Amino acid sequence: MSSPKGASAFQVSVDAGSYRVARPETPQHIIELLREHEIQIVDLKFTDLPGLWQHFSITLPEVHEGLFEDGIGFDGSSIRGFQEIQESDMLLKPDPTTAFIDPANEIPTLSLICDVVDPVLHQPYSRDPRFVAKKAEEYLRQTGIATTCYFGPELEFFIFDSIRFGQDAHSGYYYVESAEGDWNSGADEGAYGGGNLGYKPRYKEGYFPVPPHDTLQDIRSEIVLMLQQAGVQVEVHHHEVATAGQNEIDMRFTTLKRMADNVMIYKYICKNVARQHGKVATFMPKPLFTDNASGMHCHQSLWKDSENLFYDAHGWALTSNLCRWYIGGLLKHAPALMAFCAPTTNSYKRLVPGYEAPVNLAMSQRNRSAAARIPMYSDSPNARRVEFRCPDPSANAYLAFSAMLMAGLDGIENKMDPGDPLDVNIYDLPPELAKNVRQVPGSLEESLNALEADNEFLRKGDVFTEDVIDTWLEYKRTRELDPIRLRPHPWEFYLYFDI
């Protein structure tokens, strides 16, 4: 992936005090930069309801100030979770503050993240996930509780050497291959010839080993440098716990909508850098049986101007009452939240005890077996935050972040008690105590039912409209639950073929 001439003009410069990134701010800035750096292609990106980026590209003569004011048309009926065919005409309006040089293209290309507009109503489109995030931030300000919500998600993902899968009326399979996989320790040759060089991370022992165990150091570093060129500040990267190429790259926290934008850029760059190296990146939560899955632990805090409202020098774990009420809201509404935060059938193969999975709806400090954790790395007031560990990277970040904020605000408004801290390994609690600890739902179906029963907190301020919630429920049930329910599972043949 080549960097076009003048790409450095779009590289970030970060104000250490505010963590704001210097970017083009107006349509005129964009037009001037395109001409100055001889960029001929502009790519317009937006997010469908499940959370996958969509795009189309235009040429330089089509980029003018009217594009940003009036938008450009597309067929909304071909986008998952959007319009019916009889109401298909929709508009995209690019956000000039999101510009970045696209690292996935050899032809110099500028990417812009767009908002979706209904051309008949002349209003933002209710099912545009980015619009939901905008409304969540605006609702926060309207409450007077805080001015800003910061998010810092930790997205984990796998990089495999290859993946094959398929299913039809009479067969079904998947096959994952990784030269790093512990299952290859006895192979006569490496995954693609050249001899078996050993150094396979053992199951659950992939956390932090140096090369040659960690074969993906340079690929992650390449991803990090491209993320920074695209305006996403990165703090750290490393190999994760699972064998076969599990990774984590941590972005610097920023505001809710901007972080959701960054998550989309993050996934896009990870997938394209892996492809450049002849590999494949996946954010599917649980692609491997017997080893750890990929989570998206979400650090979050509320601020009023420059004051972190989650800090109290005299509170438990240095947290304020407001922070604990926020946690109370997360725990109270967690079953419904999981419909957005763990939104796939595969998510619930991660949410089982024994794999650092946060199935227990409890509050703790330092303790990774609890759903809501207070990190204790620093005593700084600015560092006080809650880490909600239930989400995974299959989530649509715009919807998941917004839902968590709305649950937390409901907790604050109703002063919800999160319960006593459980600073123990909850997995090892004796049965008489463990039975008193609520757990996350055991399936996507349970989470969708919980969302259907508990969504009033999401509809405050019209942040999540009934239209969005109903469409989400219908899409997940008909496009994901039913197809999984109707197909035989390979393990069923092992269990039942001889019955």
From TrEMBL:
The keyword Membrane does not apply. ATP binds at E235, H299, Q300, S301, R368. Belongs to the glutamine synthetase family. L-glutamate binds at N292, A293, R350, E356, R368, R389. It comes from the Bacteria. GO terms for molecular function: ATP binding; glutamine synthetase activity; metal ion binding. NCBIfam families: GlnA (TIGR00653). This is Glutamine synthetase. It is an enzyme of class 6 (ligase). It is found in: Cytoplasm. It holds the Pfam family Gln-synt_N. It catalyses: L-glutamate + NH4(+) + ATP = L-glutamine + ADP + phosphate + H(+). It comes from Paraburkholderia dinghuensis. The keyword Zinc does not apply. One of its GO terms (cellular component) is membrane. The modification O-AMP-tyrosine is found at Y427. Its cofactor is Mg(2+).
